[in-house]
Amino acid sequence: MKKYLTTSFSKSAYVFTGAVILMAIVRNPYHVGILVFLGMNIIITIGLSLLMGYAGQISLGQAAFFGIGAYTTGILTTKLGLPVAVSFPLSILLTISVAFVIGIPTLRLRGHYLAMATLGLGEIVHIVFNELIPLTGGPSGFGNIPLIRIFGIELDNDYKYFIFVWAIVAIVLFLSLNIINSRVGRALKAIHKEEQTASTLGVNTSRLKLSVFVLSSGFAALAGFLYAHYVTFLSPGTFSLGFSILLVTMVAVGGMENIWGALIGTTVLTLLPEYLRFFKDFDILIYGIILISIMILRPEGLYGIKIPGFLLPRSKKGDNE
Amino acid sequence: MLNIRSLKTYYESICALKSVSLHIKKGEIVTLIGGNGSGKSTLLNSIAGLAPRTTGTVLFENREILGLSPSIIVRLGISLVPEGRQLFYPMTVMDNLVLGTYSYYSFGNRKEISSRLEWAFELFPVLGDRKRQLAGTLSGGEQQMLSIARALMSKPKLLILDEPSVGLAPKIVENIFRTLIELKERTDLTMFLVEQNAKLALDVCQRGYVIETGQIILSGEKEELMNNREVLRAYLGKE
Amino acid sequence: MNNGSDTILAAKAVTKRFGGLVAVSDLSLDVRHGSITAIIGPNGAGKTTLFNLISGLIRPDSGTIFFKGERIDTKRPWEIPYLGISRTFQNLRVFHNMNIIENVMTGRYTHSSGGILSCAARLGAARREEQKIREKALYWMKFMNIDGIGAKKLKEVPFETQRIVEITRAVAAEPELVLLDEPAAGLNITETKNLIDTIYRIREIGTTVLIVEHDIDLIMEISDHIIVLDFGKKIADGTAKQVRNDRKVIAVYLGEEYGKQ
Amino acid sequence: MSFASQLLQYTLSGITIGSIYALVAIGFNIIYNSTGIINLAQGDFVMLGGMIAVFFHNTLHFPLVASGPIAALIVALIGILFERFAIHPLKNASVITLVIITIAASILFKGGAMFLWGKDAYSLPSFSGDEPIRFLGATILPQTIWIICVLLFIVAALVCFFRYTMVGRAMKACSYNKRAANIVGINVNNMVMLSFGLSALIGGIAGVIITPISLIEYEKGSLLGLKGFGAAVFGGLGNMGGAVAAGILIGLLESYSAGLLSSGYKDAVALIILLLVLFFRPGGIFARKEVQKLKHY
Amino acid sequence: MKRVMAILTILIAFSAASCLEAKDKKQSYKIGGVFAITGPASFLGEPERNTMLMIVDMVNAQGGINGVPLEAFIEDSVGDETKAVNAVKKLINSDKVLAIIGTTRSGTTMAVIPIVEKAETPLISCAAAETIVNPVRKWVFKTPQLDRHAADRIYGTMRDRGISRVAVMSATTGFGSAGREQLQNLAQTYGMKIVADETYGPKDTDMTAQLTKIKGTNAQAVVNWSIVPAQAIVAKNMRQLGMTIPLYQSHGFGNIKYVEAAGSAAEGIIFPAGRLLAVDTVPDSNPQKKVLVEYKTLYESKFDDPVSTFGGHAWDATWILVEALKKAGADKEGIRKSIENTKGFVGTGGVFNFSKTDHCGLGPEAFEMLVVNNGKFVVLGQ
């Protein structure tokens, strides 16, 4: 029984159920809306956690994949009038194709060079969003993106969208937990620590790195798709380098080497600015101070915090998933 | 001169040194013999202040040096010739040697430094010929000499050598050991020599210790060790 | 002694240079199927380089390497283990970001096939495969006498156990040839005795063992065949007895007399 | 305006922007060499340099000759304090953690600057007038000549510092081999602190000298930091000469593509060219092979 | 499992905090403001925020609206769409405001329009883009003059001065690209030929390359459409290159600080702006004179900072809303109707005449062409 309770499926189900209960408690479109954005961010950072925390490959271009996913579905549904059911697979497909093509040369680089290359690619995509005015509307962006209709229900309010987004979060979490507890997950961790050793165990390291890069871009595109049909307006500013850096920061703040860390870090850094609205003009200053304090006090991330802090219950030994 | 009592060192949670005690008297050459992974280098790093977690006492000239930073330990007069030479490979021979004087360098004692440099070049003439060459382009033997010369530049009272023979051709090793003996005769420098090659080490030393899995298992005068069955068997390849 | 079918691994005139340094020079050797073959020699003699050449981490400048008659020196490193070669490393390369059983399970990589998508979906096949990997890992841990510590983190167990974990990882791949790079380094006498025992048992299940080691006792005791290297060259080759009485080996490796030669 | 003089003008513009990138890239390299960290707050050192100089000159009415150096020194001090309070306590943290801290610091510096000086863009008077100098049909501002001269001066000073002073040698030694540096008695911690001070100083100087032509506001640092990071990487991390050359090259690429191709895609053109180079030379354009090798000996 | 618990704990803490939010204390009219108080557009958002709060204080000092005090809730959008969406949702759902002023940037306004439309809450935007009110949306209004009218006035002035070949410079921001589009659309109407069309990044430090290219053409004037600090840099760069053709700027130039930043290079810049910037040269007969003087005096004495047209947009928006509240009270539909029926409202941007088909309410005459003369804004031709 115990075993059944700790499968990836049940863990994901708990997260989903918890989120829905939370929504029922909160019952305020503003807070629910924030949690919708949180869900989208979590989808991206789970992918980034697989890439960064597990496989040890940094990407400062996640916002670009997020953007390609969002723009593709946005353009297809508004400019070409395609139904969402068609634009959805196409947006994911286009994003992962782009990721695949740029991943091949990029992932040969290491460390800061990889960071720079992904950053540069992200910037190029951002520039394309700005300049392809007939398609993207340029810096002014474009709106009127249709809502999602699923099983005849139009997702026209925050509550419905919340359930939709968090169901996808649960699926993404389920898939990712499965990966990390499989041969592929172990191979990724092996690449992270000792790429050469991993190859002597039979891991085709360059192919696996590419796979996880493409997968993480797919997750980002998924979030982009959700973003486009939620906000219904897109402009390049959303998909800037700043957001890529924020995503990496979320993963690092939570604790890189664990997927739950990504969830925690994303939750903290998504909700924090909303709390800090209270401080008006000081918010950016306080945000910086909190961020720097977290990193100094918990350099390995918030995940697995030892003291029974006010935010986290004590972590139990042996729970290593 | 150096007195170590119940020194323990941990890496992560692994105990790499399990209560080591030894002493070195002024003017002695003492050797430490042990196989790969026996804790030799850990011991030396602990003395030089490079090991992270240590307990016990290390007295140098009756002063506790455990826990002091490496820069202070160098200033007190302990100089390490590390395993694997650890030179500044992209810098010139001259730069490497001058950096050896870091612990006491100032504008005022330039004369002293240049005379010390000359002395080093006299001891290792080959380095004098290659002053402007990058250290990384030297041959293995030359690099080892440079490493020793750099250590000597800091005016040490105790010179610690960590496996100076590793990876060198026998002829060059012989050359280096001859220089060490010469150095000893000229300056009466105290030396602590750590070697895997027991034969070589026992040849030049006066006293020795044998270390295995982080513990000293044997100690004694040169002859004592050379005739010890255990040493003969394990380190000298004789039954 | 180069008798065809009996040979599992053969190197022919292999040379590898690093910059000006010749790490392996015109080296030819044969490893017989089912043997315990040792490679000894002073530090810097090219032993680890040879291992790296066999496991494909580096490529020779010239010469060829054959495994079971198939040329392997042109293969990518990750292709080598699929042929049946696994190895350990001199400086202990275990994965500290995984617990012990997961470390051993990585050894089963070549015996499983699920890709990233099927692992993600955890469909029936992938789940069964995962189950099998775990069972096999447990089996080999038991074989190596380290069962019961699977859930521990590596830093919670002593150094010698970590070494055994690394060897278990290599053995769990069920290779035909296992390369052990200084497995006894850092082990005390009792631990070394256990290691000898283990190596015998690895050989008993039909695995050929190629070992690099400094512990001369261990080598003399277990090896069927010993190859002595010095400066990348083979200077002697034969049984323990032959090698021990070889003048050249005594001179170079056992540290005697070379000053006077 | 003849095409030739247009081309010359593009070149001069490119060198102007490129020199600024080069200055930022040098700062990146100094810290990278001593710690392996990419200091993402480097651009904010530039911003702080400009802002503090504006504060001293425009608000406190100090003469320009005093405001500039004071500002640069204050920024150097900020760099040292930053290292002591945020980097130093985390001796064994991973590089990525430290980089995240520099991101946090960057947010903090921006927030602080906004809090103190608001959100407006400020300017300083040019050091020697605004009268453009004409040159073969192209023009160049005296301030641009100042920027280039300061760059040359800093490069020369750094060369002398690293080659002829003991502290410089010791810093260089730390970057090549920390363990060896420890062994010869160099206090590596102090060298790290010094490197933050030095790179902040250079950032501060850059801020002071660019403010007269490009204005300064609290968010100015991000873009400069980004371009400087690019220059540092493409020049081969840790390679000073490479950083200067790559910085100017990026400036030229931007200027040529803005002038000759498309201004909208100018950054993209520059990035694509540099990425292509990076794919073929993964260690940066100016990575010197033998030194690279010696480093990883 | 503990991990799941951990995340849930954070989320529950979050929800608990959301329940702790202030409950209604006393009767008041709540209005919201969403401005880019920080971030790259903060030089627009800050005066807007200041102005709105200033008016709220003024109204409350006079006893509120029909005896009911006004309560303002201000949120920072950082000029970011996601944050703006959150902010507007917060105002509508948590703070329960009757109407919202903002946002600062066109992009953020476009992003929040679906929300206010659905929540049926009036929004008076301070952003420039025409797409905000064209097509007309039931609940959305705006106070800044239209980009189109700015382009109209610029081209009109050029035509009067015999210019027919222009070079367009614009920043790759929403404001810049919207202006560029208007300039392209209207060129033919005014017989203008665009001989160069250059863009630059909003944070670029040097535009000499683009200007050199323009210098190589036979343009008779340059129009630059962007926000600070690029506007000042363009002026400086033109001067450096020895370009003597006139520089026209957009109405984004509406703050005297940019003139200071550009120094002598700003001399002679011509641009369209509300009359606020040249209060002194507006004749007393102009109906706006009184409002302009009032706002300028109040703002500059309170914040010790020169007025900008951006703050003026918030001034107009807030007063229009106050008027609507006076008539309609706490009734969103009533407020909306009352805004839509505002006629002859004299604001800093011009005289507003809203209607069912016009949610901006200003014509081209709302702009005055100004020129920089001795570091001051002067009405062109005076």
Question: How would you portray this structure in words?
Answer:
The complex is a heteropentamer of chains A (321), B (239), C (261), D (297) and E (382). Helices cover 71% and strands 1% of the residues of chain A. Chain A has 321 residues and is mostly helical. Chain A has a single domain (2-304), classed as ABC transporter involved in vitamin B12 uptake, BtuC (Orthogonal Bundle), CATH 1.10.3470. In chain A, β1 (149-150) and β2 (153-154) form a beta hairpin. The longest helix of chain A is centred in the last third of the chain and has 27 residues, at 205-231. Chain B has two domains: 1-77 and 156-239, P-loop containing nucleotide triphosphate hydrolases (Rossmann fold), CATH 3.40.50; 87-155, no CATH class. The model of chain B has no long low-confidence stretch (mean pLDDT 84). By secondary structure, chain E is α/β, with parallel strands linked by helices. Chain E has helices at 2-19, 42-61, 81-94, 106-119, 147-160, 174-186, 208-215, 230-240, 256-262, 289-303, 309-328, 332-340; strands at residues 29-35, 70-76, 99-102, 123-125, 140-142, 165-171, 193-200, 221-225, 247-249, 270-273, 343-346, 351-353, 368-373, 376-379. In chain E, α8 links the parallel β8 (221-225) and β9 (247-249). The model of chain E has no long low-confidence stretch (mean pLDDT 86).
Give the key terms.
heteropentamer, A: 321 residues, mainly alpha, ABC transporter involved in vitamin B12 uptake, BtuC, two-stranded antiparallel sheet, 2 strands, E: 382 residues, alpha/beta, Rossmann fold, five-stranded parallel β-sheet, four-stranded parallel β-sheet, 18% strand
- How many domains is the backbone of chain E divided into? 2
Query: What is the chain-wise order of helices and strands of chain B?
Result: EEEHEEHEHHHHEHEHEEHH
**What fraction, in percent, of the residue positions of chain E are helical?**
40-55%
Secondary-structure element series of chain E: HEHEHEHEEHEHEHEHEHEHHHEEEE
Q: Average pLDDT value of chain B?
A: 84
Short description:
The complex is a heteropentamer of chains A (321), B (239), C (261), D (297) and E (382). Chain A is mostly helical.
